């Protein structure tokens, strides 16, 4: 069995005690029934990767093979 490749799953915030962010995360945890802040950070990181990929695709030419994925 091959060893698993470890990847970055979430990114902790730069400022650990920013009141507005803490309140927003607590609201999200209560609304969606998440267990801890790490789950919020994981989803936020995944969405950031998807948005980054979308921005990259939009900068390509319209007739580029990567952009035409029908």
Automatic annotation (TrEMBL):
Pfam families the record matches: Ribosomal_S4
InterPro entries: Ribosomal_uS4, Ribosomal_uS4_N
Record-annotated membrane-spanning stretches: none
Keywords of this entry: Ribonucleoprotein, Ribosomal protein, RNA-binding
GO biological process, one term: ribosomal small subunit biogenesis
Keyword presence, Ribosomal protein: yes
Domain Small ribosomal subunit protein uS4 N-terminal: 7-69
Gene Ontology MF annotations: rRNA binding; structural constituent of ribosome
UniProt keyword annotation of Disulfide bond present: no
Top-level taxon of origin: Eukaryota
SUPFAM superfamilies cross-referenced by the UniProt entry: Alpha-L RNA-binding motif
Any one annotated GO CC term: cytosolic small ribosomal subunit
Similarity field: Belongs to the universal ribosomal protein uS4 family.
Protein name: 40S ribosomal protein S9
Organism: Daphnia magna
Species classification: Eukaryota, Metazoa, Ecdysozoa, Arthropoda, Crustacea
């Amino acid at each position: 069995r091959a060893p698993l490749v470890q990847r970055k799953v979430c990114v902790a915030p730069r400022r650990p005690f920013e009141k507005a962010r803490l309140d927003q995360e607590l609201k999200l945890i209560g609304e969606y029934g998440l267990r801890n802040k790490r789950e919020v950070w994981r989803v936020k990181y995944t969405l950031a990767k998807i948005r980054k990929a979308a921005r990259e695709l939009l900068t390509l030419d319209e007739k580029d093979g990567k952009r035409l994925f029908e």
